[in-house]
């Protein structure tokens, strides 16, 4: 629906004031307020008794539903005209305004326009937006009590915090049937979150130019904020977070949220989701419900992952192949081929002793079990979340909300930019639409832009790989005389592999940050260019674009190490080179690629989480401290509620987007590559326990109150999680098969053990091939001579009729790897589909409650109409009877 705001300038009254403006203070502290009815209300107010921390107008009766702020500047004539017309149009719609002069502000230069929505405005737009309101107390018995409920007592919050309001049956508000609903007090019937949502809906659609200008695009508070006409627009918090409000009419819900939710020492307590929803709206409530549920489910994955890690630690001494590598008789006598041309020297196998032991902690039989378990865990997590989400949809009156979102709540930008109109078959009203040709052209341009940036990321990754190859050779040349040269400045022993990896990781991190910063703006620009129809569609389109980019940005290096590094190397004398250059393709770390993947995963995952939490908590706090440092030194009475909130950080349109993105990227780390690091769920669990409290603390104390918004689900993130769940089964199967040494060891133990016994003796010699170093071209051969030399592969030696071609064991291992992938994928997918089929998306009791509520709505509406009709007939009969009793002439 489009708000019909008149753009004609307001007509001044006898004192030269517009509707809704304040004439100022007289010597006797009198304030003259002009309302939409143009009645002059003289309010005698004792300045000493009036608290500026109040969330009401100066009369103490009308609640402040929204605040606009602005500052006069030298070029302010045009902006002043916009504000004049815009505020006049708001008054004509029915809103009531009260302006705080800059002399009343702490900084002496900021004006504050306080907005109040009276009952008529709220009722009208509640009807338009189909907001559900209570009409009867829920009489369905709640059988959700769990057995042995006393065990959860330490984790529970007080009932008035968990259930801030009774459970009602609700129905979409109908202004013509106002007496059908439970309206005890019109001033409190609509909660503040609903009130600010309605006011923002009006602000987003009201014009700020005169009608004779003919520019339909000039409307909405968003454009006024962008062009600097207003500096901020926000609803008010109801109190300070550290103390209750002095006003008995305020519930101090912000204080309750801080006390019972946002403090870190509440980390073991349940979240007051109903209070979060009531104060911040359903969209933010859904996010914290999902984050809390995800954290709870991580507990099971963390326990199993820790058990698998402990198994690797307990079987430490049974690691026969590591013993052979570390022994002087076997590992000390095996001289390995150089890891790069000319500049790299020979090295002994026992130098990889520590890497081999470390690799066993993660590369053991339990790894296979844990990979299968995580495939099933992901399915359980998604299926149980669907059930939890369905229950929240019912409890929070979000059933069938998506249809309302699509049909009724069009984006103001869509309404103004789409000049074509067509008939909506559902509402039978003319509505704007975007022609299919324009939509296709915009989508193609958007897709091409996304592909261009993803290609740029891949190009940067290839550049980092080329850097690693070049710098590795340089470090190897420097350290050739002593491969473990000690750097006196740093202290520990540095190898060419470690030095290269550290510098390459730093460069990769800088590239990620720069591209993230640039792409964020590009993604918003191309999404705006597509002109999505609704806010939900806008967020979904932006979500897909940003996630595709972040997926490539964060995971490409892990995919490279897991599936490409060391797989296309060749063999001595016939090495493969990168793009035909002199840079030889990179081999795995001497300890194997799995330990290198584990190391990279730990660094990227933990580093990102630690830095993210510090950044989320520290930056808003520092900005707020800097912005309000002068105001804190003033008396409390001079620092008003609207000024306090004005000094806080704005919770932008994409506030929750980055929170979801951070958690989904983490979800990818613990699912896509978990076979290489079973402790990843444990690290994620610890991070998320902190994340819940950091996000809640930040939202409650450091940000302005967001405009309440509805959402019935986590949106496009749900489909992304489903896609990652399927992909994780494939990636973990390939990691176990091709990155881990699990399959080669099993093939050796069951098929190639020389003594026919089930042990791993002789595995190291069996897994290496011999090369005649004299056959390496002179320009690539190191200066020192070692002959023969060994390398990791299964090839025939020099002099054999099929010299340097793959042995039969290589093909047996390859067949075993492919068979393992097929079997694991089919087993996990079958279990996933069975579990998904067994667990319904909507709990049976919720389905019954939804049907019951729909039935009652119809029944009560029918009874209401019947009673109304009876009353009308009774009145009519009484009137007819009175007419018959009148004497006739």
Automatic annotation (TrEMBL):
Protein's cellular compartments? Cell membrane; Membrane
Domain Anoctamin dimerisation positions: 56-273
**GO MF, any single term:** protein dimerization activity
Membrane topology is:
Multi-pass membrane protein
> Which intervals hold domain Anoctamin transmembrane?
276-853
According to the record, the segments passing through the membrane are 287-314, 365-385, 450-478, 498-519, 667-690, 818-839
* Superkingdom to which the source organism belongs: Eukaryota
Where are the residues of the annotated region Disordered?
A: 1-31
- Tell me which InterPro entries the record gives: Anoct_dimer, Anoctamin, Anoctamin_TM
Provide this UniProt record's keywords sorted from A to Z. Answer: Cell membrane, Glycoprotein, Membrane, Transmembrane, Transmembrane helix
Q: Which GO CC annotations does the UniProt entry carry?
A: plasma membrane
Q: Which family does it belong to?
A: Belongs to the anoctamin family.
What is the official name of this protein in its record? Anoctamin
Q: Which organism is it from?
A: Salarias fasciatus (Jewelled blenny)
Name of the gene: ano5a
């Amino acid at each position: 629906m489009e708000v019909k705001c008149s753009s004609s300038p307001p007509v001044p009254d006898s004192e030269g004031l517009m509707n809704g403006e304040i004439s100022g203070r007289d010597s006797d502290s009198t304030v003259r307020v002009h309302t939409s009815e143009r009645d002059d209300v003289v309010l005698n107010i004792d300045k000493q008794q009036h608290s500026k921390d109040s969330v009401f107008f100066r009369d103490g009766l009308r609640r402040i539903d929204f605040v606009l702020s602005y500052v006069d500047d030298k070029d302010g004539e045009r902006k002043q005209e916009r504000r004049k017309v815009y505020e006049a149009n708001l008054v004509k719609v029915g809103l009531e305004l009260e302006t705080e002069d800059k002399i009343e502000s702490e900084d002496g230069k900021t004006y504050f326009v306080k907005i109040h929505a009276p009952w008529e405005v709220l009722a009208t737009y509640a009807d338009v937006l189909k907001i559900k309101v209570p009409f009867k107390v829920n009489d369905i018995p709640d059988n959700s009590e769990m057995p042995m409920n006393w065990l959860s007592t330490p984790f529970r919050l007080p009932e008035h915090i968990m259930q801030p309001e009774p459970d009602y049956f609700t129905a979409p508000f109908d202004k013509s049937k106002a007496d059908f609903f439970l309206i005890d007090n019109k001033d409190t019937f609509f909660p503040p979150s609903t009130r600010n949502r309605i006011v923002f809906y009006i602000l987003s659609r009201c014009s700020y130019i005169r009608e004779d200008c003919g520019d339909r695009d000039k409307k909405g508070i968003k454009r006024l904020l962008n062009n600097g006409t207003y500096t901020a627009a926000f609803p008010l918090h109801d109190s300070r977070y550290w103390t209750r409000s002095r006003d008995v009419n305020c519930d101090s819900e912000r204080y309750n949220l801080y006390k019972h939710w946002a403090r870190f020492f509440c980390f073991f307590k349940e979240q007051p989701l109903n209070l979060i929803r009531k104060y911040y709206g359903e969209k933010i409530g859904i996010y914290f419900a999902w984050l809390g549920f995800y954290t709870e489910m991580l507990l099971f994955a963390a326990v199993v992952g820790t058990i698998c890690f402990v198994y690797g630690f307990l079987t430490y001494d049974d690691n026969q192949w590591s013993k052979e590598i570390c022994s002087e008789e076997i590992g000390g006598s095996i001289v390995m081929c150089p890891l790069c041309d000319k500049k790299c020297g020979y090295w002994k196998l026992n130098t990889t002793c520590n890497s081999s032991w470390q690799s066993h902690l993660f590369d053991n039989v339990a790894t296979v079990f844990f990979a299968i378990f995580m495939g099933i865990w992901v399915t359980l997590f998604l299926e149980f979340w669907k059930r939890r989400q369905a229950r929240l949809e019912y409890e929070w009156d979000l059933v069938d909300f998506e249809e309302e979102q699509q049909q009724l709540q069009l984006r103001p930008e869509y309404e103004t930019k789409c000049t074509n109109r067509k008939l909506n078959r559902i509402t039978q009203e003319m509505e704007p639409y975007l022609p299919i040709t324009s939509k296709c052209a915009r989508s193609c341009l958007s897709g091409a832009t996304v592909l261009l940036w993803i290609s740029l990321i891949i190009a940067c990754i290839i550049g980092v790989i080329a850097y690693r190859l070049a710098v590795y050779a340089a470090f190897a040349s420097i350290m050739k005389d002593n491969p473990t040269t000690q750097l006196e400045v740093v202290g520990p022993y540095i190898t060419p592999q470690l030095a290269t990896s550290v510098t390459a990781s730093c460069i990769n991190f800088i590239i990620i940050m720069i591209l993230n910063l640039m792409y964020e703006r590009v993604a918003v620009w191309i999404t705006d260019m597509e002109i999505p129809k609704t806010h939900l569609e806008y967020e979904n389109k932006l979500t897909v674009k940003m996630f595709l980019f972040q997926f490539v940005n964060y995971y490409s290096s892990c995919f490279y190490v897991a599936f490409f590094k060391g797989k296309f190397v060749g063999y001595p004398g016939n090495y493969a080179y990168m793009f035909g250059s002199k840079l030889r393709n990179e081999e795995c770390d001497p300890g194997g690629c799995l330990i290198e993947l584990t190391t990279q995963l730990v660094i990227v995952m933990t580093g990102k989480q630690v830095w993210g939490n510090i950044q989320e908590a520290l930056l808003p706090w520092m900005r707020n401290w800097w912005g309000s440092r002068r105001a804190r030194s003033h008396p409390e009475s001079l620092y008003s509620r609207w000024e306090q909130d004005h000094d806080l950080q704005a919770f932008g349109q994409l506030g929750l987007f980055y929170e979801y993105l951070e958690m989904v990227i983490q979800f990818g780390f613990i699912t896509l590559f978990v076979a290489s690091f079973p402790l990843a769920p444990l690290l994620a669990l610890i991070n998320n326990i902190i994340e819940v409290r950091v996000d809640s603390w930040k939202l409650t104390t450091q940000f302005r109150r967001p405009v309440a918004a509805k959402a019935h689900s986590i949106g496009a993130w749900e489909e992304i999680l489903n896609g990652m769940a399927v992909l994780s089964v494939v990636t973990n199967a390939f990691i176990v098969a091709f990155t881990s040494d699990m399959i080669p060891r099993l093939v050796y133990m069951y098929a190639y053990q020389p003594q026919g016994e089930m042990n791993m003796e002789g595995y190291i010699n069996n897994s290496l091939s011999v090369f005649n170093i004299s056959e390496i071209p002179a320009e690539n051969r190191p200066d020192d001579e070692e002959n023969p030399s060994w390398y990791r592969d299964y090839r025939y030696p020099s002099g054999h009729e099929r010299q340097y071609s793959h042995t039969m064991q290589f093909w047996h291992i390859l067949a075993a790897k492919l068979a393992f992938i097929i079997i694991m994928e089919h087993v996990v997918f079958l279990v996933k589909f069975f579990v998904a089929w067994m667990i319904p998306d909507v709990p049976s009791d919720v389905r019954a409650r939804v049907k019951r509520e729909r039935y009652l709505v119809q029944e009560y509406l029918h009874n209401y109409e019947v009673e109304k009709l009876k009353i009308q007939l009774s009145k009519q009969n009484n009137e007819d009877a009175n007419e018959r009793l009148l004497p006739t002439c």
